[in-house]
Protein 1
Amino acid sequence: MDAQLVDQEAVARAVDAIEKALGTDAVLRSRADLDEFRDPFWVLGSDDNDVAAAVMPASVEEVQAVVRIANEFKVPLWTVSTGRNYGYGGASPRVPGSILVNLSRMNRVLEVNSELGYAVVEPGVRWFDLVDVLEDHGGEWWSSIPDLGWGSVIGNSLEYGRGHTRIGSHAENVVGMEVVLPNGELMRTGMGAMEGNRAFHAYPFGFGPMVDGLFFQSNMGIVTQIGWRLMKRPEKYASCWVHFDGDEIIVPVIDAMRELMLDETINNYPFLGRGVAANAEGRPDLDPNSQKWALRFALYGYDEIVEAKWRIVERVLGAIAGVEIGHKMYDGTDRVGPLDGIHDDKVQAGIPGMELLDLYKVPFGPDTGHLDFSPVGPLIGAEVLKMIRMVRSMYEEFGEPYAAGCMLLPNSILVVSVMFFDPKDAEKTKRIYDNYDPMLKRIAAEGYGLYRSHIFKMDAVAATFDFNNHAYLRFVETIKDAVDPNGILQAGKQGIWPQKLRAQRGR
Ligand code: ADP
């Protein structure tokens, strides 16, 4: 990245103007305050991706004011909701010296609709906050949640984050958005494009093209509100597991799971793992020679339905040689108490926690960093085994233990793997990030793309989406130039650069 990319004088004047508009307590400039926003998983103490200041608007009008000022001074902004995007850059901007727009003060749950099953949330609403509010409303509705409860509903969903309940495909739970556009204008999508529309968060489409997708993994706007689909609390919930030794058994297990998911016997999003948070005892297992795998999934519904589904699952999966299978049955009303501290059972019941973070600290202590490598493939047993072997062999080449956490959808799979390192060790940390490039090349050559990436790797990943000489990126950048002519928002995110900074691609 060019050192003089950002006009620091213009940034300083813009921050002054923002302070005038929002008040002094909405602006952080001191190094100590800003250190909090460094990527904790990059070389400890590095100033490589520092922000110039952080601004914290408390309302939509204040977000609009920030965007208008950024246009006036032509300075770059980088938006986060809570900035917990760990493993992908945290709150760090792609362009150093940007102004961080931190939305954590906009933390209201604006509505819980108990008849239709949705909530309306602002960007600062964390999973912990939303679930507390749902409990206060009687606990009749569950939210899907990711593994850690401290992040935000909006930040995670916009990144195509995932959970482990029946509604665990988070981007698909977003129904109706409110967005501050790069020119400062406020827009609502879907039915919300009509003033006072009664189905804004109930019906996902609108009249005309669906533009919601433009705000996922992108830099076309600042999302200030979304409708969020909830799941009705089931009468019973069975937390189920399958354990086996040896990579080969992945093939029949995956093929059986696909059938069970496509016929909706299993209708949550199962998780297949080895290594941290995935071994049978729920303890980290980074033995590079270990061949132990653990699959978990859930069944929900009325008592009789869950019982019947379990019998089918037991018959189908139990017939596979070499697998052990089991389940625990809960009432839908079992919350804190019966499920306390049991990460696997909690996440499938929409109870947020922080247990996984403790496990992730095991390899190198409290500062342990990790970088995720996450290719997507079709849910075909033989192909999943091929992908896992390919990724595992690269870990072996690098001399790193292979820890995997694969997320199953009914017909696809995210073959996520995790490289651990100690950010205090600068040389090793840089080597881990360098390992990523040959992995990306090899996996893309086989026809697999990544679902998400760290800010440092966004150009490289975007370059692998190369059909017809990168027609997709050309189209998206044409839109970017039209809606953000000054290139103020999230430059370089997902490899999408505004015209004036396009020469930065790949730097
Ligand atoms: P988390 O919920 O995990 O804390 P972050 O706040 O770190 O998530 O957001 C993850 C990424 O999603 C950010 O880097 C940013 O690119 C994007 N993002 C987050 N919130 C918004 C928002 N309100 N509008 C637009 N993009 C956002």
Note: The CA atoms of residues 459 and 505 lie 6 Å apart.
Protein 2
Amino acid sequence: MSTFQAPKGTYDLTPPRSATFLAVREAISAPLRDSGYGYIETPGFENVELFARGVGESTDIVTKEMYTLTTKGGDQLALRPEGTASVLRAALEANLHKAGNLPVKLWYSGSYYRYERPQAGRYRHFSQVGAEAIGTEDPALDAELIILADQAYRALGLRQFRILLNSLGDKECRPVYREALQTFLRDLDLDEETRRRIEINPLRVLDDKRADVQKQLTDAPKLRDYLCDACKAYHEEVRALITAAGVAFEDDEKLVRGLDYYTRTTFEFVHDGLGSQSAVGGGGRYDGLSEMIGGPELPSVGWALGVDRTVLALEAEGVELDLPAVTSVYAVPLGEEARRVLFGVVTELRRAGIAADFAFGGRGLKGAMKSANRSGARYTLVAGERDLAEGVVQLKDMESGEQTAVPLTEAAAELAKRLG
Ligand code: AMP
């Protein structure tokens, strides 16, 4: 094995592809920032207890996929497998919910860790941008989040994604359904592990991908038939609001998602160009989570969109993001004296806010011009001994190929003018 190899299930972001990742994070967070969401950052690890209680002890995420560790001091920690529990923990710790301004709207961006079987689109280290709106029960808030995610994907140029929507009921109606489902499932021909799941988290059984299991589920009781009137009305209002916003969605009563804390509105964004790992993002309402982790009653809703899979979705659709060239001006000095002078001009340009780069390492004209080309710079500044003797630099427009001599003292101002 090469020593230059990232750990299994991980990969590095390197230029130029890394620029797309940055642009995706930016595009997903932009609508949030414009909608009253404030930035929050939490540690990459938390006490293991938070996820055990918050994500749920019966979920794959907690039982199989969490990276846990014991510190030298004896603390039991876990690398965060998702964002919601941490963000809620941090909001409670900072008493943001007591500042009298509900909902507390937060957005975040970061790395998450799950010990999963790696495959295309599924990694052990991945990246999400997420949003949480804490402390308010209002169908418009659920609708807002779905609409903002749709807006973000569209702004990126994605078209082949679909929004799946469901309601999981609340603490009134869900237990009644849960029991009806358990009674139904207990009579089926299922393996031991699935039988255990029936007792801990029966809704997850509906999510089983195996054909022989799905075949037996055809007549399973449907959550839709058990929703209480309040949940039904709430869900209808969410549907009406997103419909009015012109956002298309599909009702998917099988959508249960892998986390224990969801109530009422649940949704997932899937992309049809991604094969089996088709979920690019997901979220929902989690009215009981705060109490599950020891906080007050704080009905909340949120989502997390996967950055890695969003980039894969862009590639699958052949969308090229319109990324501006990183460098506007590239300076090519010929000789020692020119090196000092042009390095000074580059510094001046940068201080004036113009992206500039420099041919380092004393290369010849040919190699340096190649680098200038690769940099994508619109203009090149070239200067040799004779130019300096005349007090000028050669300014080359890389698009037209046109070259003009400009007085050295005016080079920065001239470039600023041309670059607008
Ligand atoms: P989840 O909390 O599982 O619903 O994850 C939300 C989003 O994060 C998913 O829709 C994916 O885009 C992304 N995601 C989750 N797990 C992984 C993973 N192992 N590798 C890459 N992306 C992931």
Note: The domain at 329-418 is CATH 3.40.50.800 (Rossmann fold).
